């Protein structure tokens, strides 16, 4: 039998969306060792970037499924995750999602869970920009007593959010708390932050018991995420200071790398 670096000779990986995350994912996988080419993209219009050259372009979920993926990676947004991912799961195709914040809506979570059960497929929720969720999910198995998250960003990153009502973002000279509450409230009031708070809640204590503090900090140039967890396992603190993707200052490089790692985890025979 011919040797292959992957679990199947030619993994059929498709991506939904052709924005910054999809581009970083396609380029990262193609430039990896061994290289892995994404074969199809579901996009509203044919993408122009060279990273998408040679991919089949599909217009809807039916077209994507007709292409025959064994893995779909959603990189398009909360609406696309809600509308397209359940169909893929129900058809038996494993999915990795970037738009985890959509799962903060209990009806959406129930819908994808039911679709995955129906299709006997797996929905993978990567840690994204946060990191540390492998330890949190493992710790949960023996019982967690407290999970807190503190997300800090430069004041300009909070423009256009309810943080503008909590303080004068342009006049800040020291860090200011712009929100304190549950992960459920944080996801509803700060949808741009919902990916991290929803992923944390899913891996840990759930949306009501996970405590969230959001901070505008004029001393920062990068977004930072700090998770503290306590339980039967002991205690951990995990903090990341994230650089942005060159093409999209709203998206962190670690989030794109986390998707890339999740894809490799699916196709590679051995992965740390
Ligand atoms: N989990 C994390 O930590 C994390 C971090 C960053 C971004 N994200 C999420 O990843 C997603 C993508 O981020 P991005 O920076 O690439 O955004 P982006 O705006 O650069 O790209 C999104 C792309 O998806 C396309 N799209 C949207 N709806 C679509 C649909 N229904 N069908 C086909 N294409 C559709 C858009 O046209 C665009 O090309 C967002 O939901 C974002 O919130 C998650």
Automatic annotation (TrEMBL):
Enzyme class: oxidoreductase
UniProt-annotated binding residues for NAD(+): 129, 195
Domain Aspartate dehydrogenase: 173-259
Pathway note: Cofactor biosynthesis; NAD(+) biosynthesis; iminoaspartate from L-aspartate (dehydrogenase route): step 1/1
Aspartate/homoserine dehydrogenase NAD-binding domain residues: 17-126
GO MF terms, alphabetically ordered: aspartate dehydrogenase [NAD(P)+] activity
InterPro entries reported for this sequence: Asp/hSer_DH_NAD-bd, Asp_DH, Asp_DH_prok, L-Asp_DH, NAD(P)-bd_dom_sf
Keyword Oxidoreductase in annotation: yes
Keywords: NAD, NADP, Oxidoreductase, Pyridine nucleotide biosynthesis
Catalytic residue list: 225
Substrates-to-products reaction catalysed: L-aspartate + NADP(+) + H2O = oxaloacetate + NH4(+) + NADPH + H(+); L-aspartate + NAD(+) + H2O = oxaloacetate + NH4(+) + NADH + H(+)
Pfam families with a match to the protein in the record: Asp_DH_C, NAD_binding_3
EC number(s) given by UniProt: 1.4.1.21
Keyword NADP attributed: yes
Recorded family membership: Belongs to the L-aspartate dehydrogenase family.
Remarks, miscellaneous: The iminoaspartate product is unstable in aqueous solution and can decompose to oxaloacetate and ammonia.
Function: Specifically catalyzes the NAD or NADP-dependent dehydrogenation of L-aspartate to iminoaspartate.
Protein name as annotated: L-aspartate dehydrogenase
Organism: Labrys wisconsinensis
